[in-house]
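Complex 586.
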Amino acid sequence: MTANKWLVTAGALALSVGLAQPTFADVSIDSIVKDAETADDVVSYGLGPQGQRYSALDKITKDNVDQLVPAWALSLGGEKMRGQQAQPLVKDGVIYFTGSYSRVWAVDAKTGHELWQYDARLPEGILPCCDVINRGAALIGDKVIFGTLDAKLVALDQKTGKVVWTKTIDDFKGGYSYTAAPLIVPSSAHGPLIVTGVSGGEFGIVGRVEARKADNGDLVWTRPTIEGHVGTLNGKDSTMTGTKNETWKGDLWKTGGGATWLGGTYDPDTKLIFIGTGNPGPWNSHMRPGDNKWSCSRIAIDPETGDIKWGFQTTPHDGWDFDGVNEVISFDLDGTKAAATADRNGFFYVLNRENGKFIRGFPFVEKITWATGLDENGRPLYVADNRPGDPKDSKDGKKGASVFAVPSFLGGKNQQQMAYNPGTKLFYVPANEWGMDIHNEPVTYKKGAAYLGAGFTIKPIFDDHIGALKAVDPASGKIVWTVKNRAPLWGGVLTTPGLVFYGTPEGDLKAVDATDGKELWHFNTGSGIVAPPITWEQDGEQFVSVLSGWGGAVPLWGGEVAKTVANLNQGGMLWTFKLPKRVAAN
Ligand code: CA
Ligand code: CA
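Predicted structure with calcium ion bound:
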């Protein structure tokens, strides 16, 4: 071969590789249901609708993970930084992800080159409680579906990023917004459904779950989460949630909260949607005697009808803003169809996912003050003195007795997603150990205004950490190991056969040994990580991706803790890592 001919051949090769565009491919409902079994794509939030965040990929191992290097990084650009909390999706060489301020990207997974970007036009006056974040999109058919901060559901053309349809979830002026990743579930009666909730639990909204047809966004059913409200099916009233006034006296159930702001999971085995509900409104619990169902609960919904099949209330008569929204992860517990969830209230719950029956529960964070434990049905054993006092008992009626409660209202665990590893049979929980001063005040409902009736300041309870990644054994209730972190953990977890990946507000993406928590690798992404990592395989290589970009609820609501993280810089990058070829080949 002459030198000249070599150059021409190499040039032609480079050109063909350089111009090769990824092929867009439809995402079937079957591939979403089976997402956990396929390593070459990530087509659901949670790496499988069950939400385990486990990948069987084992090319990156305990022995070689220290060689992991960036393959590429992409800036989200502009002046729009703030918290980046989304989980990316990957299908046939294209990564789809959302960013702050209701933005969406499609990116070539091999090169990080942008294929398209969509920016929602947000109106003045949106009311997001906890930063301008978004947790991710959903893929179905040839569409990318996501929700916006002004409470709209938008379907984009997968190939172009152009809008196919838009639906209004609710009135953003009334305090509604949308930040969760939509959930796609199969149904025999209606075809694939898009299941969404609502954000706005601090504004006196009423939580609900809705299902729409995946092809055109038409509403199929709605399910309010608060007792006394009536659902719909095919445009007609269906059934009432609970029984009116059974656990809510008076009229406050009409603005009762129970926001479904974190979205849900789906179990193909029992064919149930699991979704959590937020705090009852207002925070001042003395205004609403009773258990206040189904606030601060997990509910199982039949996708065919929208009816509630079972409910489990983690914090009846909540007085601390212990939203019950955290994800319910399906798993096998020695032959029992189980599910687990780590609550804001500091307790870890193992339930029978067929009927919602309590199997066991135990604290996963230290120094819990508001309850001494759980009874045989999983109901908290309350510490009466640790409930913030009734303002009516104060001299001027304006401020109830203040208490110091653990966990803080941002929770033993918040929106940051835990993971389950079927190999180690452990849950990896990104927990936080902190407390709060909290007191109640009088409040009346006003549309679009904060509806709390409480004042609060979050404070650390340990000198050396707030964040604590914990390996939790659901069979014994033991905490197998803990890795402390100075700042609060706000990003999700990913697990593979030997490893656990998670990010920190300090900016590091870390890999630790799944058996003992020993740190094996870290990489500073340049800004805080408040999002969950993913992994997938392409052309024989294993990749790991995560969004970096500090923000979310902690800097806005963190009280004294917010001061300790005030030095962290904002950002907005999608990072993708892989092993160098010479390492991967060994
Ligand atoms: Ca998959
Ligand atoms: Ca709340």
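The chain has one domain: 3-584.
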